[in-house]
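Quick one before lunch.
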Amino acid sequence: MRPARECCIVGAGMAGSLLGTLLARRGWRVDLFERRPDPRRVGYEGGRSINLALAERGLHALRLAGLESPVMAQAIMMRGRMVHVPGQPPQLQRYGRDDREVIWSVHRGRLNLTMLDAAEAAGARIHFETRLEHIDWVDQRLHFRRPGNRCVHHDFDFVVGADGAGSTVRHEIARELPLGQRVDELGHGYKELEIPPAEDGGFRIEPHALHIWPRGHFMCIALPNTERSFTVTLFLPRRGPHPSFESLRDGQAAQRFFRETFADAAPLMPDLVRHFDAHPVGMLATLYLDRWYLDQRAVLLGDAAHAMVPFHGQGMNCAFEDCVELATRLDSAADREAAFAEYEAVRLPNARAIQAMALENYIEMRDRVDDADYLLQRELEKRLAARHPERFVPRYSMVSFTRVPYATALERGRIQRELLVEATRGLDAIDQVNLEALDRRILDLLEPLAPPS
Ligand code: FAD
Ligand code: E0Q
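Model of the E0Q complex:
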């Protein structure tokens, strides 16, 4: 007998709402449980605009769910990173070759709403203000807490943990089966601030870019919103000597710090003091697990399975890839446990790879993007990519513009970096590089990348 086509998903955030849509559209009976209230009723995040970078992997998943056009209608193109270094005009480092290779700034709350609407339209039932507290694995029953301290329960055939980095489903699985969990805290935190629209209603800085203020051991970024504001994120060590979140006692101290350190950004942020005092410091960590499922009864995806630091802008993109992989396997499987096992075998090594690349990108973003040797390597990388478009694809491009497995991007990226470092060592201009010798190494070391399926 084929397994029943019904599932319970805990968490209706980024991954849960997309997986719900994908399965409901294939005729599954889907119940989604979300601890927060319905955002269509109460609005999002206290009305704050939080945005995310959407790239090809995420976009492809949305396409499969029939959501490309409603999402893209609200997205702002980001052509590259605009690097702000003191005493120099901001410089755009293009992400790709042209405007076909770009990423998109999307509003987290609105994207979530679009997916919730689509899940419901496809027949999924969404239960808001329903927080999972406990899973009874013997009776296969989920126990929830609702407002007014009411307890409710729901019987399940299997449960999907899409409940984010602090996953309760993961915690409950771990009581039955050791998951090999390791949490690696970055030691740096983040705070969200804002650049509002200009007096005349326009953008205060270039809208079609991801702005970065690299400062060695810390940095600031800003992504554009359709409201013509920017969401600014300050990344700093949590504790220790100035500057750290510990050393910035309050908004006034933060404003002084901004005026000294981010001199061009400070005047664009009239509410910095108020926002700094009002918004919490977020935690950043990488979560590693050795297992993502409990026999045929439960499976994890997204941040619940593999939370990562945000410096490649791939957490949601990766979670969306998980959803497609899991939905496809579940839909065609005769044996559910086998489907979970295959999903884990495919996705776990790729999650490990993007986690590693995201960690590397923090150092690159905060410390390297304005170095001469880094810029020379990037220039040579472009040159080689043009000479060998099938073989030498920059790692950033593989991650952001293709669906090449993350593990492949990591591996090929390593080979490419060695070539770049070796070829530019001690040089200060691109015309000193011996390109013909490099061509031979590339043909030797890098097979053409397979086109996407
Ligand atoms: P979430 O989106 O966190 O959803 C989990 C849901 O589960 C929530 O709705 C929560 O309320 C619910 N929930 C939790 N516990 C329970 C419970 N017990 N019962 C019921 N419901 C529960 N990714 C990108 O791709 N691009 C970016 O540019 C990007 N920028 C980022 C910037 C920052 C500062 C951070 C912190 C992350 C960023 N990410 C980015 C990562 C991205 O936010 C996450 O990877 C993504 O949200 C993961 O989706 P998820 O569904 O697994 O978890
Ligand atoms: C992207 C897009 C939070 C965040 C999100 C991002 C990126 C960065 C730095 C950060 C990486 C990059 N990047 O510009 O290389 O491409 O999403 Cl900090």
